Amino acid sequence: MATATPERTVTPAGGDDQQLNPKARRSVGGTLLSVLAWIVGIGFFFPILWMVLTAFKQEADAYTTPPKLFFSPTLDQFRAVFDAGIGPYLLNSLFATVVSTILVLVLATPAAYAVSLRPVKKVQDVLFFFISTKMLPVVAAIVPIYVVVNDIGMLDNIWTLIVLYTAMNLPIAVWMMRSFFQEVPKELLEAASMDGASLARSLREVVLPVISPGMAATALICVIFAWNEFFFAVNLTAARAATVPVFLVGFITSEGLYFAKLCAAATMAALPVVIAGWIAQNKLVQGLSFGAVK
Amino acid sequence: MTVTAERPAEVTPRRPDRGPGSRADGWIRRAPLLPALIFTIIITQLPFLFTIYYSLQSWNLVRPGSRQFVGLDNYVKVFTDSQFRQVALNTVLLTAGAVIFSMILGLLFALLLDRAFFGRGFIRTLLITPFLITPVAAALLWKTVLFDPTYGLINFVLSPFGAGQTDWISTFPLTSVMIALVWQWAPFMMLLTLAGLQSQPHDVLEAARVDGAGTFAVFREVTIPHLRRFIELGLVLGAIYLVNTFDAIYMMTQGGPGTASANLPFYIYQRAFLGFDIGQSAAMGVVVVVATIIVSTFALRLIFRSFSGEES
Amino acid sequence: MAEVEFDQASRIYTPGAKPAVNRLDLIIDDGEFVVLVGPSGSGKSTALRMLAGLEEIDAGQIRIGGKNMVGVASRDRDIAMVFQNYALYPNKTVGENMAFPLKMRGVDKAVQQEKVKAAADILGLTDYLDRKPRALSGGQRQRVAMGRAIVREPQVFLMDEPLSNLDAKMRVSTRTEIAAMQRRLGVTTVYVTHDQVEAMTMGDRVALLKDGALQQFATPAELYDKPANVFVAGFIGSPAMNLFTLPVGAEGVRIGSSDLALPGSLHSRISSAGQDTITLGIRPEQWAVGGDNGDGAGGVKAQVDVVEELGSDAFLYAHLDDEKQTPVVVRSAGRSGARRGDQIALTPTSEDLHLFSPETGERL
Predict the structure, then answer these.
(1) What is the fold, at CATH topology level, of the domain defined by A78-286?
(2) Same domain, C226 and C246
(3) What pTM was estimated for this model as a whole?
(4) Of A21-30, A172-181, A241-250, B119-128, minimum mean pLDDT range
(5) pLDDT tens profile C114-126
(6) Using a CB-CB distance cutoff of 8 angstroms, which residues of chain A are in contact with residue C149?
(7) B178 Cα to chain A: minimum distance (Å)
(8) Reported ipTM
C-alpha cells in the first residue's frame, strides 16, 4: 500500500517522549494512598495476626520483650485447648447455631414474603414491630427469662439457647429476606402465573432460585450472631449446654492467663465465624442494616 | 365505533369473595407471617410484662419466702442509687464514644477503599475481620496480648515514646473497653459508608466536576449530603447494638474498679445474677426500657426514613 | 383462538375515585391484532392486565371466546403475555424458559422439546437454547419472551410495550417481525404501547384511551382521517394536527387578520351544525405554502420560526400574525429553501379538514 494514512505518522503510538498528562502525574498521590490503605489494613488486622501467631508459640516465646516475630511453631497449645475439653462446647455452639439458623429461615422466609411480594395490609407496622424488638435491651428481659426457664427446668439446656437465638435473629432475617424478595421483579410471578404455574409452584420454581443467594447470606449472618452470642449463654447455661464463648471464660479462670494457650483457644473460637463472615462479606451490610443498605 | 368521553360514571365495584380486599384473601396473606410474628411476641414481648410485674416486688432469690409486693419501692431505690446514675452515665459515654469514634475511623477507611488499587478486596477483608471475631475472644485479646502492662503489644509499640508499663485497663478502664469496641465496630461503619460511597450515581459526580467543582468541593457538596443517610443509619444501628455491650466489660474489667466501667447491662446482670435481687434488677430493666423507648422514638423515625429510602 | 370482548369493564383502585379503566367496551375479532394506545396514565396497561387476570375486573365483564373471565385465574385463561421487561426466569436456560408454560401444563417432555425447537427455529434462537437469559442481548431476550408465548399456542397473545427496551433500530425491525408473525399464526393479539407509530403500523385496529376512557376504536387510517374528537386528532400524527378555535364568518372562518375561505362542502357542514365558533383541524400536510411574492394571495400569513429539514420533506414551525401569535406546523417539500424569518402564506389544500365542536371536542 503506497498511500499510508497520514494520521498514522502524526500520532506516535505510545512514544516515550510523550508529555505525561496531569492525570498520570497525579497517580503518584494515588500510589501513596494505596500504600496508606495497605498500612492501615495490615495495622488494623495485626492484633488478629498476632493472636494467630501467638497460638503457635510455646508459652516461653509468648512472654518476651521485644515480642518475638520468629519462632518455631508448635501445635501444643491447640492440643492443650482440646485437653481442657473445648470439644463439647464446640459441638454445643455448632448445634445451637445450625438449628437456630434453620429455624430462623423457616420462620423468616414466609414472613418476609408476607411483607414483600404479597403484602399484608399493615406492612409498615409489622416491620416496625420486628425492628423495635431489636431496640429493646436484652438485659431488661433476662430476669424473667431466667426465672421462667428455671421454673420449667430448662436451665443449662441447649434448646433454650436455640429458642432465644431464633428470636434474636428473626427480626434481622425478616428484614433482610424482605429486601431480597423485593428484588424479585413482580413480573416474574405474573409471568409464571400466566404460564400456568400455581402459586406454590411459582414460588418454588421461580422465586426460590432467585432469592437463594440472599437466603445463604442471611443464614451466614445468623450464624455469626448465634455463634458469637455470650449474654444468654453465660447466664442460662452451665456445664452441659455451654457454648464456646463460655468455654473461653472458664478457660482463663481455670488455666490462668497463659497468652499462647488462650490465643489458641480464642483462635479456635473465632475461626468459624470469621470464615462465615468472609464468605458473606458482600451481603454483610445489607443484613446488619436490616436491608436498608445494599 | 366511537365512545363519547366523560360519561358520568358511578361504577360500583362488585364485592369480591376472593381476590384482594376480601376477608379470605386477608388471611391468606397473613398466614405466612403469623408463625414468625407470634413466636417473636412470645419470646421477646412477654418477658417485658413479667419484668414489670417483678419490678413491683421485693424478691431476692437467696432469701426464699422473701417475695412480697412492694409497689414502687424498687423504683425509688433505683433513682436514689448513686451507682445506678454512675452506670447510666457510663452507658451513655461508652455507647456514644464507641459509636462516634468507630464512625470516624470507619469513614476514613471507607474513603481509603473507595478507589481502585492493587489488593483492595484483600485489604477490605482484613479490615472487616475484627468485626467478625467473637466478641469474647476479641475482649480477651485486648485484655491480654494488647493491653498487658508488661508483655502487651501496646506498651511495646509506645515504649519508644516513653510510655512505661502503663496498666491501661486499671488506669483507664472505660477508655480501654471503648478502644476494643471501636476496633470491633469501625469495620461495620466502614462497610456501611463504603456502600454509601459506592452507591453515588456517577453522573452526578461527573456533573459536579463539569460544573467546576474540585475534589474537595465535590466531596463537601455532593458526597457528604449523599452519605448523610448512611452515616445517620450507622450511628443508629451502632447505638442499637452497642448499648447492649456486655461481653467486653465482662471479659476485660468486670465493671471495675468499683463501677467505673460498668454499663447498665452489666450492672443489672450483677444485681440479678450475683446479688440475686430480682425485684431491683427488674425495676432497672424497666427504667432502661423506658429510656430506650424515649431515645428510640427519635432514632426510629430517623431509621425509618432511611429504610423507606426517602430522600428528604 | 378466540374473540375478546370488554363489556363495560372497569378497574377501580379506590372506590369513589376516578376509575383507572372506565366502562371499557371493545370487541376484538378472532385473529385480529389490536393495539391499545394512549398517553401514560390512560389505563391501557391496566386494561391489558385486566384481560390477563393480573388486575381485578371490578365491574362489567371481559369475555374470551364468549366465556366470562371474572374470577378466572390467569393460568386458566389460556393466554400468553410478553412483558415489557420480558420477565424471563433468570435461573432457567432459554430452552427451559420457553418450555416452562408447557411443563406447567403437564405436556409430555418430548412434545415440549419439539415445540420449543420449532419456536426457536422461527425466532432464530436455536443456538442459544442452553444459555441463561443474562448471557443474551436485549433483542434476543425479547425474542425468548416471544418464544415463551408462542409455544403455548394460546387463544390470545398479550403484549405490554414489548419493544420499549430495545434500541431504535431493533425496535423497527422487531416491529415488523412481530406483526408478520402474528399474521402467520393468526392468534388474536392485544398489544399495548404509548408509541403511536407502533400503533399505526402494527394494528388491524387501534383503541385510543385517555384517562381510563376509550376515545376511539378504529382502523389506523380511520383514526388518522376521521379522528373522533380533538384528543384523538392531537394524539395521532406527528407533528400533531394544527387545531384552531375560530369565529365563523360568512365565507369561512377568520384566522388572525385574514379570512380563510373554506371549501363549500365544509362550510355547509359548519352551518348545519349551527356553530358560531368552530375548532378547525388542519394536518401539517394539508397546507399549501406560498411566499410573500403574491402566489399565496388569500392565504393565512405566518412567519417561520424553525425549519426541520428531513430530506424528503421539511416541517416549518411558524406563527400566525394574529394577536396570540398562534403556532402552526406546516409540511413542505424538502429543501424548499425556507428559512427562519420568512413570511409565508398558507392555504388549506384539502377538503378533508377536520371540524370539532369547541364545547365538546367531538367531531362534527
Answers:
(1) MetI-like fold (1.10.3720)
(2) no
(3) 0.81
(4) A21-30
(5) 999 999 998 999 9
(6) none
(7) 16
(8) 0.85
